[in-house]
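Summary for the steering committee. One of the milestones for this cycle was to obtain a three-dimensional model of the protein with uridine-diphosphate-N-acetylglucosamine bound, which we needed before selecting residues for the alanine scan. The sequence and ligand used are listed below.
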Amino acid sequence: MKVLSVVGARPQLVKLAPIAAAFAGTDHQHVIVHTGQHYDADLSDVFFSGLGIPDPDVHLGVGSGSHGVQTGAVLAAMDKVLEDERPDWVLVYGDTNSTVAGALSAVKLHYKVAHLEAGLRSFNRRMPEEHNRVLTDHCADLLLAPTEEAVRHLGNEGLAERTRLAGDVMVDICLRIRDAVLAGEHPAPALPEGIDPEQPFLLATLHRPDNTDDPARLAAIVESLAALPVPVALLAHPRLVARAEEHGIKLEQGAVRVGRPLPYAGLVAAVMASAGVVTDSGGLQKETFLLGRACTTIRPETEWVETLEGGWNVLVPDPHEMDVEEWAKLATRPAPTTEQGTPYGDGTAAQCVVKLMEEALAAQA
Ligand code: UD1
């Protein structure tokens, strides 16, 4: 079996790590295509080196652009790659512009598409990711759902026949790296200057267009972080840095200390060292849950609804509209003591993905 993985953005590289490792233990051929959607070393190279992922076989170098420009550039470049490689499967990951472009280019040329992390829904049509995931699910041949909830969503959309419960590959990698961090196999993370890892601090990230692109909203969210009673280590995504600069918003104010995005092991170690996380990232909500810390999510909804059970994750769409003390109490609350269960699987999802792809290919033969 020949599988061509299309990846391009940071969260996809994290998911690629366990998938590449699972294929490495088989006779299957695994080809990695990097679209180049993310190109800064902080968002791309450090994941390949840090997680032991083989270098990409093909690099499309599309870079940044508006949605149409970025998606279109991947589409245009993929035809030749598919013609050259002729894979049995094109495997696409998550919900970025690289995902939908990879899927669409493949189905148009009659290549089979498998979608990893299928069936997630926010039902928020303002999110570019929501369109990417719905369109990708509806054109893919094999829908690899991470959770029972995702299986239900796909069933509701008439896609049950193509759906398989695979578990979440994020668990595979997150727990593996957690254990390595606990075993002292990674250096201490490069936290922003002014953060003492021995003292309580909150870890924060912010990159969703709905939070970063409106100057008034971004300024209000940063003020809410600045008003917190413990230091806030803000790992600033380039989109956040670019928008803050554009709008003349100072990120480093009050409790906020600004640093660069961390490599994966650094991020896991930072979550473990923190008193809790404030974020709008999908992946980080789940990583915080898996690592047993409280998460506060600056969004009106989440795709990862399982994290909300027992108060591990709490949604706060507008922190600046809350009473300052209530907000501080919520963001600094201790981690719950309630049982979490294993809604995202047991850390063997990547092997399950390989098996499901083998089975689906055999069934078509
Ligand atoms: C993308 C995904 C989002 C995912 C996120 C993870 C889409 C629509 N969005 O958002 O789902 O959660 O990745 O990080 O696909 N930039 C750099 N260097 C880089 C990459 C980006 O400076 O290496 C800056 C550029 O100013 C760019 C902006 O960040 O315009 C946004 O990048 P883009 O890839 O369009 O979307 P993300 O916000 O990263």
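Key point for the committee: Residues 9-11, 37-40, 43, 64, 95-97, 128-129, 207, 237-239, 242 surround uridine-diphosphate-N-acetylglucosamine (CB under 6 Å).
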